[in-house]
Amino acid sequence: MLSNETNHNSEHAKLSFENTEIAFRHSSNTDLNRAYWLFRIININFLVKIGPPITNFAIKIGLPIKSLIKATIFKHFCGGETIAECNNTIKNLHSGGVGTILDYSIEGEDDEVVFDNTRDEIIRTIVRAATDKAVPITVFKITGVGRFALLEKLDTRQPLTAEEEKEWQKVQNRVLAICDKAHASNVPAMIDAEESWIQETIDLLALTMMSRFNTQKAIVYNTYQMYRHDKLASILNDHEIAMVEGFILGAKIVRGAYMEKERKRALENGYASPIQPDKKATDLDYDSALDYCTSNIDKIAFIAGTHNEESCRLLAELLDTKQIDHKHPHVYFSQLLGMSDNLSFNLANSKYNVAKYVPYGPIKAVLPYLFRRAQENTAIAGQMSRELSLIVKEKKRRSK
Ligand SMILES: Cc1cc2nc3c(=O)[nH]c(=O)nc-3n(C[C@H](O)[C@H](O)[C@H](O)COP(=O)(O)OP(=O)(O)OC[C@H]3O[C@@H](n4cnc5c(N)ncnc54)[C@H](O)[C@@H]3O)c2cc1C
Predict the structure, then answer these.
(1) Does a structural domain hold residue 255?
(2) What pLDDT sits at residue 64?
(3) 39 CA to centre of ligand 1 in angstroms
(4) Does residue 59 lie in a domain region?
């Protein structure tokens, strides 16, 4: 026992997120220079503020800026406009031991034809994953296959009109078609979490899919946002349901992406915000969720979607102290393409399961995603962003 522990600990001691040589081994000097200039521009808060309206306006009046976007910010954060265009990124990540999660990033659509097309595209990502271990997991958003306002109405439990009932049936059929294909292809499919005022409907749908398709293996994963004060309890509750019904719980654990929007809506509508009182409370619940899932690793398959170094380190430690194999199929670390390569590639180098979201889609449809990534990476209190400082460190190392 003692020698085993020593072994695990010494393995863990080697895990460092500071090694930029490993983090950027897959990036050429040209890639690194492009990333350097990109993040320098993104660090200028003013430019990030005025960027989105100027870009949208330029596209609207037909200025030829798509190729400029494609060669810069799009190239950094996205795999391509189609699955085929993502092939180089998939190979590149795989060469560093990191898997790809193809994320068809079309947002804000409200049209039945688009919803059917999105369902078909998600199914194509599953087909692409089925024959390539470099693409171990797939993902989709319920709002990619159903109208936001309809989900919102369902969440309030208002009765639907006959027309809406038919529409809702179509949404459920699309989700079923995706999960059915995932199950038949033996490829896990994660369902992203969204705004709290549509999330209950998403949760119910996800749980129904899990109970149907996760009896032998975790195929469907729901997402739990730990910035919500009720979501640690949801994991425990859903685990209980899974135990009673006899299926494996699939859980993607994130902190949550819509905090400002959530707080603003709660304030405007006079209800208690679902968000934790502070960051510390979110972090505590996030780390408790990792602890809970690792303690129940036989019955919970989970993916830690985070760029937080402490949480990644904690999860690595939990696996070692609980003597869970780094390659246990029930645990994955996950980051977004173009961010936190120091975490992804150093974890993969220590033989943990890691996969990155690789967003793709037509440039215009992906723009809101790109604007969010830019906003996230602006300088804080005059300091270089974490990404930029890592790139600078690696450039210095290479020039030596
Ligand atoms: C692979 C992957 C998949 C993802 N999927 C989803 C998804 O399906 N749905 C979704 O909503 N998000 C998703 N996200 C985004 C995620 O929820 C976070 O917004 C983002 O990753 C930042 O959190 P962090 O854990 O990386 O790190 P950190 O930088 O440590 O945490 C920042 C986060 O902490 C929380 N926070 C910050 N300040 C406070 C405060 N004052 N009070 C309470 N909480 C606070 C917020 O959630 C904020 O985003 C995903 C992220 C990744 C990497």
Answers:
(1) yes
(2) 76
(3) 20
(4) no
